[in-house]
Design goal:
The complex is a heterodimer of chains A (214) and B (620).
Chain A (H helix, E strand, L loop, with lengths): L1 H18 L8 E5 L1 H5 L8 H19 L8 E4 L6 E6 L11 H10 L1 H7 L7 E3 L16 H52 L18
Antiparallel strand pairs in A: 1-3, 1-4, 2-3
Chain B lengths: L17 H12 L2 H5 L1 H7 L6 H26 L3 H8 L4 H30 L22 H5 L2 H10 L14 H18 L3 H11 L2 H14 L4 H9 L9 H14 L6 H7 L7 H50 L11 H11 L1 H6 L7 H6 L5 H14 L3 H33 L9 H16 L7 H11 L3 H31 L5 H28 L3 E4 L11 E4 L2 H39 L7 H14 L1
Antiparallel strand pairs in B: 1-2
Classes of the chains: A alpha+beta (214), B mainly alpha (620).
């Protein structure tokens, strides 16, 4: 009697040990790079952190398959100092049966960002080997920003060209008016000077010495 | 009496002050090539040892040529066509050749400025667009072309140039490049709108700004990790390399093209000077400043390249560390860059089979330093990658591209001046056409022809123009200039002119250079250059994503029709020299024979003509 009780008590753990092993058909290898992600704020990987991971996976499975998964349904084994391990998911109805790999993958992909946030990691530092991350498309603004800079530059240059051309034309017109005025002024000034003087001296005719030589 | 009015004669424009003139000449000589060609040559030709052939070429070839051009322009007070026609009608073709070369060079040089503008416009984003690969069509991964090469390469070849695989495949006009090219020509136009009045104001900024930015980069670069690796690599002299003739050839051609002689621009600039100006000192200032700038600029460039090599090396090691850590499940951070070698040796001993099967990269710092580049590769690929690693990348990118913009613009001023001034002297332009409209027409025509360079195959065409227009024709023009002044104009007359301008005659060093040493060196360089080019059929590197060794560029031969265009580009500019010479010879011969037949002309008073000529030359 006692022997049977011991046998049945040991069965789950023995079964668990057999269900979860490295390179299991329905299992995934997980690799965490906590120090890379958090630097000085890195937490120590221990039993409690593992519990949190199991809870997160249980959440993801429940959310995706709409069944009630428990932490005990997530089996973890083969932990290494790298912080990498294998895990398998058992069915809530029958703990000796494993949930298929595809379902686990879909569940993890659906709740990936949630799982990342729970563990304070991201797609690169919490790796599920074999599960492709969904890449976020880069943000594309409505007008490419380079067009805006270009618009500013070409606007300044265009304004400058127009301003310079207009000022050249205006200056030329002003000069023409001035030259015309100067020509008129000159004749008037000449006439005034002649009226006040005794006439203009014709140097080729005689020397213009007003005083007679002694 | 009233004022004397001569509405027909326009006063020749002149510089506001000496500083403007010097800055314009320095700006013309100091161009993008000082930054992206000289450090590369220094690096591949044994670092410090390269300075020896470089300085020898400067002293015996560069400075005499420079002095000659500045003196002749200042004395004869005309652009390149007028000057050579004046010296001897048979040399009139030299001026036309200069003008044609300046025109062709300004077209492709402005395309480079358009590329700089494009990168400048794109530097105002966070993150910088060349830092990430775009996703492929169904968003499952990154674009394959980008993944195989790097995001920086992808941005340059695909998003900037949209380059085709072959020079024969033209592709279509890239609209973003067209508007950048239009912007570049508008900038040139606004600086030239009032001739040298507006250009002279612009050079205060474009000639001095690069030095400011270089200093900022120098301070920043010297504080980056790995800077000393780059500097040591650059300046470590390898004296053995001086035995190779290729080094001397490249030093001579570098000095020659760096000083921007034979374009006609320097002659035009010095023609706007006052008559009595010490052009010997000007030539020394411009020449020495140009070389000093090359040296000064190579320090921050190579510090940054050393930083980039060190960063790449660390990244390579960290990738290996990650691979090993994941495979052997070692705890994180146990294996670092510092103790990588010990770990590697230990693992190699304990698990040699595993190590052999892992995709480990070979990380060699020397290898990364050797990945040098020159030209557009340096500016748009290597440097932009380095800028990504520096904190505050946008600021450094903007500064770098504005510096390249200033350098390019100040060189473009000389090129465009080398086209505009002779054009007015050719008397093809009607007098009623205002200067602004002529400048606009020249800019518009250059822009329309330059649209070739905005096609998919545009980069290949820029390479063609760069290699063939800006090389052999210039050598021939410079040789003709030197021989023309030293032997046809006469060293005696030239010495008298210089005595008139500077108050002292040129000493034996200058005379020896002009008459013997420099023409000889030019001849040797020309012959060696042609011999090297003629030896092999010209090829070009093509960016072909379907190439089996992609991302390496595929070496393709130019098709026959492109080879024909290359020959045309080399021959057509210098064709004018023999054509004009022969034409004038025939005309001279006909005149002489006419004079003999008709006898003395009763209407020509030769004594009067000689006397007035002498009086005119004395009073100038």
């Amino acid at each position: 009697m006692l022997g049977r009780i011991v046998f049945f008590l040991c069965l789950p753990s023995v079964l668990a040990a057999q269900l979860c092993k490295p390179n299991a058909a329905e299992g995934f290898k997980v690799r965490l790079s906590i120090k890379t992600a958090l630097g000085d704020n890195a937490y120590e990987w221990n039993r409690n952190q593992r519990f949190l991971f199991q809870a997160a996976i249980a959440f993801a499975m429940s959310h995706h398959l709409d069944l009630e998964f428990n932490v005990s349904n997530i089996l973890v084994c083969d932990e290494t100092p790298r912080v990498s391990f294998w895990f398998v998911v058992t069915s809530p109805d029958d703990p000796s049966r494993l949930v298929g790999k595809e379902s686990v993958e879909l569940a993890v992909r659906a709740s990936r960002s949630r799982i990342n946030n729970i563990l304070l990691l991201n797609d690169a530092t919490l790796e599920f080997i074999g599960v492709l991350p969904t890449l976020a498309a880069p943000v594309k603004p409505a007008t490419p920003s380079w067009l805006i800079v270009f618009g500013v530059v070409i606007g300044i240059i265009g304004a400058g060209i127009v301003f310079l051309l207009v000022s050249t034309v205006v200056q030329k017109k002003r000069k023409e008016n001035e030259v015309a005025e100067e020509e008129d002024d000159d004749e008037e000034a000449q006439m005034k000077r002649m009226a006040g003087n005794e006439g203009i001296c014709n140097t080729s005719f005689s020397e213009c010495d007003r005083n007679t030589q002694m | 009496m009233g004022e004397e009015k001569n509405p027909g004669t326009e006063e020749r424009p002149k510089w506001d002050n000496k500083v403007q003139y010097l800055l314009t000449c320095i700006g013309f000589a100091v161009g993008i090539g000082n930054l992206w060609r000289f450090p590369y040559l220094c690096q591949i030709y044994g670092g410090g040892a390269f300075l020896i052939p470089y300085l020898i070429a400067l002293v015996f070839q560069g400075l005499p040529l420079l002095y000659l051009e500045l003196a002749i322009g200042q004395r004869l007070r005309m652009g390149s066509i007028g000057v050579w026609k004046n010296i001897s009608p048979m040399l009139g073709g030299v001026g036309i050749a200069s003008m044609v070369v300046s025109f062709l060079v300004s077209m492709f040089y402005n395309t480079i400025i358009a590329w700089v503008l494009w990168y400048f416009f794109n530097s105002f984003q966070n993150p910088l667009p060349w830092s990430q690969c775009p996703l492929n069509a169904n968003q499952t991964g990154y674009s394959s072309e980008c993944e195989k090469s790097t995001s920086v390469n992808y941005f340059w070849y695909r998003e900037t140039l949209n380059i085709t695989e072959d020079i024969g495949i033209s592709g279509s006009l890239q609209w973003w490049m067209v508007i950048c090219l239009a912007t570049a020509w508008c900038v040139i136009y606004i600086c030239f709108i009032k001739g040298i009045d507006s250009m002279g104001k612009a050079v205060y900024v474009t000639a001095t700004f690069p030095y400011l930015v270089l200093t900022i980069f120098l301070i920043r670069a010297l504080t980056l990790p790995g800077a000393t690796d780059g500097l040591v690599y650059l300046f470590t002299p390898d004296w053995e390399i001086l035995k190779k003739p290729q080094v001397w050839l490249d030093a001579a051609t570098q000095i020659f093209f760096s000083l921007s002689v034979a374009f006609g621009g320097l002659i035009a600039f010095s023609s706007y000077n006052a008559e009595r100006n010490d052009c010997e000192r000007d030539a020394l200032v411009v020449g020495i400043t140009n070389s000093a700038t090359s040296l000064y600029g190579s320090i921050p460039i190579f510090s940054i390249l050393g930083f980039k090599a060190r960063t790449n090396f660390n990244t390579c090691l960290e990738q290996n560390i990650l691979t090993l850590t994941n495979h052997f499940d070692i705890a994180e951070r146990n294996m670092t860059v510092e103790n990588y070698d010990q770990w590697f040796d230990y693992l190699n001993v304990t698990h040699p089979g595993d190590i052999a099967s892992l995709p480990l990269r070979v990380c060699d710092l020397q290898n990364f330093l050797d990945q040098s580049a020159s030209g557009t590769g340096l500016a748009f690929i290597v440097f932009t990658e380095a800028v990504l690693e520096m904190p505050g990348s946008q600021v450094w990118a903007v500064l770098f591209f504005v510096m390249l913009l200033s350098l390019g613009l100040s060189s473009m001023f000389g090129n465009v001046e080398g086209v505009l001034t002779p054009l007015q002297e050719l008397k093809l332009v009607p007098k009623w056409l205002p200067h602004e409209v002529l400048t606009a027409i020249v800019c518009l025509v250059s822009f329309l022809i330059g649209l070739i360079f905005t096609l998919g195959s545009g980069n290949y065409w820029v390479e063609v123009f760069n290699a063939y227009v800006g090389s052999v024709p210039l050598l021939i023009i410079a040789f003709c200039e030197m021989v023309g002044v030293a032997y046809i104009y006469g060293m005696k007359t030239f010495s008298e002119d210089i005595y008139f301008m500077t108050g002292r005659r040129p000493n034996i060093y200058w005379k020896a250079c002009w008459m013997v040493i420099s023409p000889l060196m030019l001849l040797v360089v020309f012959v060696a250059y042609v011999a090297l080019q003629a030896g092999t059929y010209p090829t070009y590197p093509a960016w072909n994503p379907n190439y089996e060794n992609f991302p390496q560029t595929e070496t393709k031969e130019y098709p026959k029709w492109v080879f024909g265009i290359i020959v045309a580009l080399v021959v057509v500019p210098i064709l004018s020299i023999p054509v004009v010479a022969v034409y004038n010879l025939i005309r001279c011969g006909m005149k002489k024979s006419n004079a003999n037949v008709s006898g003395p002309n009763p209407y020509s008073n030769e004594a009067f003509e000689i006397e007035t000529q002498e009086r005119n030359t004395q009073s100038i």
